[in-house]
Amino acid sequence: MDVAILQVDQWDSRACRSIHIWTRHDENARVISTTERAESVNRKNQGLSSAIGAGYRVVSQKIRYWLPSAVDRRIRVVAWLSLVTEILIVGTGGAVRLTGSGLGCPTWPTCVAGSLVPTPEMGLHGVIEFGNRLMTGLIGIIAIAAVVLLWRLRTERKDLFTLAVILGVGVLAQALVGGVTVLTGLNPFIVGFHFMASLIMVCIATVLVHRVYLPSGPRALVVPVGFAGLAHATSFVVALTVVMGVVTTASGPHSGDAEAGRTGFNAELLEHLHAWPGYATLVLTIVLLAASVRGKLPVRKLVVTLLVVELVQIVVGLLQANLGLPPVLVGLHMVLACVLAAAMTAVVLNLKAPTTLTDRVSETTHEHARS
Ligand code: HEM
């Protein structure tokens, strides 16, 4: 019987060594036997690999050590940065529309064919539009930082980790919607959708900020059921006001570019249909404030904040409507809508508290009552 012996060299990456495999075959090329001989040769390679392996272990251990194992100041700062920048980008996006720079960068993802950044020919409009794109990059970096910082806590604080991931995915999605906005020549419905999506991001960032100050676990209502119902109803009317405002804008004069289309709806009528629910939110918030002060509810400070923002928003809304929609006031009205959405979200979130905290509060109350 003819026997062929084949030698195969393999690298065992786990053990950082090379292995010689001897395989004996008969004339039909069937494997008769295989012997492995681990080689202690190749010392140079082994030394290099173990150095890389050790380096990798040291770096990963250092990163692991540096990443928070509990919610700390770094996580809170990033959560706040996320909320602030999500609101600011609405301001820069508004600046793009209100200065007529909507097509300052006429293509996407590059600013102009062949250049990622604006060229001198694009002028100020190009710079303003590109500034908004840069802002998206900043928000993306903050979202990544939040995910990285929460990495070690991803099981323990799944709520925070999920919110950070949603914010990260949201930035990507918004960048794509922004691209569609440009590529459709600033279609008013898409511009409106882009703004609404930004508002939703603001609300999600508010949830993150709220949660980084609280433990996880089940939550229980800390206000009377009627009050909670009224707060939810108010948030619904706020949402209605915002939607009507967006439709009003989409039918108004500030399209973002002389060539951009409008919805063709009656902007004057829409302005009223938008302002009425706006006044309704004010009335509902006054009732909420009265009830929260009367019942000494913990949420009353936030209701005051909500009321103040609403009052300023209504004054700005009335001024802009009566002064022929000056861009500065319209931009301010947009940013205030975000602040208002954040304040409303905060009120709704504070209707409940983690049961671990409420139990502690009621225990203390009972102890006081006993003593
Ligand atoms: C709670 C109160 C209010 C909220 C939350 C609110 C919110 C908004 C929002 C989100 C927009 C769309 C912004 C955009 O897409 O660029 C808007 C537009 C507008 N709002 Fe309000 N608003 C409120 C009250 C008022 C009031 C009382 C008036 C007074 C009439 C008013 C007048 C306007 C006008 C005229 C526009 C269209 C601006 C344009 O054409 O560019 N708003 N509002």
User: Proportion of β residues?
Assistant: 5-15%
Mean pLDDT over the full residue set: 90
Figure out the total of helices: 10
How many strands, what sense, and barrel or not for the largest sheet? Answer: 3 strands, antiparallel
Write out the strand line-up for the largest beta sheet, numbering strands in chain order. Answer: 1-2-3
Q: Any idea what the shape is?
A: extended
Pathway: Porphyrin-containing compound metabolism
GO molecular function, one term: metal ion binding
Subcellular location: Membrane
Keywords: Cell membrane, Disulfide bond, Heme biosynthesis, Iron, Membrane, Metal-binding, Oxidoreductase, Transmembrane, Transmembrane helix
